[in-house]
Write a structure and sequence with these properties.
heterodimer, A: alpha+beta, Ribosomal Protein S5, domain 2, B: alpha/beta, Glutaconate Coenzyme A-transferase
Chain lengths: 107, 560
Amino acid sequence: MALERLEFEFIGEPENGENDWEYLHIGHVMSGDLEILAERLPAQANVTRIHVTTSAVGFGSVWQMVIDEFMATHKMYGCEIWINDDGATPAVVKLRLWQLVREMSAK
Amino acid sequence: MESMAARRTEWTLRKNEFQKRLCEGRQFVDEPGSKTVNPADCVSLLEAVIRSGDRVALEGNNQKQADFLADCLCNVDVERVNNLHMVQSVIALPSHCELFERGIAGLADFSYSSPQSARVAQMVSDGKMKIGEIHTYLELFGRYFVDLTPDVALVTAISADRAGNLYTGPNTEDTPTIVEATKFRQGIVVAQVEKIVDKLPRVDIPGEWVDFLVPVGRPCYTEPLFTRDPALITDVHVLMAMMVIKGIYAQYGVKSLNHGIGFGTCAIELLLPTFAESLGLKGKVCSHWTVNPHPSLIPAIECGFVESIHSFGSEVGMEDYMANRPDVFFVGPDGSMRSNRAMCQVAGHYAVDAFVGSTLQMDRYGNSSTAVAGRIAGFGGAPNMGCDPPGRRHSTASWLRAGRESTMTRGLIGPVPRGRKLVIQMVETFGAGRVPSFVHRLDAWTLMEEAGFKVPPIMMYGDAITHLVTEEGIAHLLRCDSLEQRESAIKAVAGYTDLGREANPKETLELRRQGIVQTPEDLGIDIGDANTSHLAARSIRDLVEWSDGLYRPPDRFREW
């Protein structure tokens, strides 16, 4: 099965540095769903890189919009994020990203 | 003096005709004076009582099917019986199509054909099936009593006594409507039953309305259509369901309602004992239902949310549960539930505060359709549930509030107060395989061209929709004051579809300020908290446990 890889990078000031998490995992790779793995970079890091591996080829512009909205809303700077997707809809992608934020703030 | 039409002198032509057919049919009964025909003689019976060109109601329901009679009808001598006009609510079985392939039937007036949608489209394009019209259930039932009265009805029941009384039980569905229309215009009624017994649990159809009985020794085919496995509900469904409960049910005080069979509505049902309870909504919303006995309603029933449920049909496996909850379901003196599609359609049309459904496609005006090119699926009952009935005159709190908010109505009737039914569509912006649900042109237009329809098969017209709910938020379309504003509100919740990308962010903000569009955030719902752990049941097995073992799901839903 052909996979498409997409890379996104954002630079900005990390917002809430007091959260105590290092690694997080949300979701599952299954048809119509995805998993997100997130690693927190050292405190001074202001770059977030998001690596998407997806089975649905040709949706780069939609990924760009969903991830732009996510970063504009939550300003998750200073993370390394891997997304492994098996054809999730934008609705599912967005929900999982928001669930990730909730997990982060719960830690 | 004006010339006068000649006086009619013959008044019993139909009666005479059917008396003749009755006599011919009676040569196949097992003994003189009996109505019982050996299954082996059933084809001959049908050849005796049906004439070419007859209108025939072959009982094809949403769920139970007169499958034995359908098979027999397929085997009549096509030289003797052909060109039949089938008037049946659902084209469900391969045998229903076979009648047309073999030339026994030529014309169909029906409501729903989803199970055979591809084959129906093919037969139409091959010229084997001519479609009169595609109806909603109530329209077709209405026409049974006007210009589509059946000459012959082929129906199905659980059991009969020797006098011809029928017990149709929980899956009574369309039988009373079909038999009444046929018999009171002197038509012939043939019933297949599993067996003939000395005493029936109750009489659903009086024996004198039934001419022939065929005991086939097995139950008729019945499809479990309304069982949704809670394990297949996604977090997105939960998010949308939370929005409906908090942003619509709680706001309007929706007490009476109909739900479609999507996973979104299934999620609502399973959030009543948890999320809705936490909002203090028990007793305030969702107490009276016109809906099939969805197994996913069991937890809400057990928690006392639900006061009553009247049903179009039954659901396989729910029989004992319903029999043990007679305060909630419509249960006969014998102890078993009775459904009635016509009555429940009337109730769902006129007597409920809200309908919630889903669709495959919606255009910028809010018109929605499940039509797919190459498939003719019909309408069923959804358009009568999913509309505001202009003939409604009684009021409820929800109806009055929705009426007050319906800005555009005033343009036509002035400042006269009038209520409105809520018609809510739950639509994920993208369906399976990332196919966008919001489109510039509905596939219904293509199907119209392909099939030669006069109008595109729209399931619900945009003017009927009061609320559109997607994972992006709620569009309170009834609060819009122009078609342009409705379009903007639809685009505002259409997500990353092409239509959604046309939304103007400034305009969306203004719509949110005016309360026309509400995002989960506006409703105080944390998107990150929307997940299936909130559901009262997360598997079929959970539902069985909620029911104390009274719900007995069909094997295909058992994974333990």
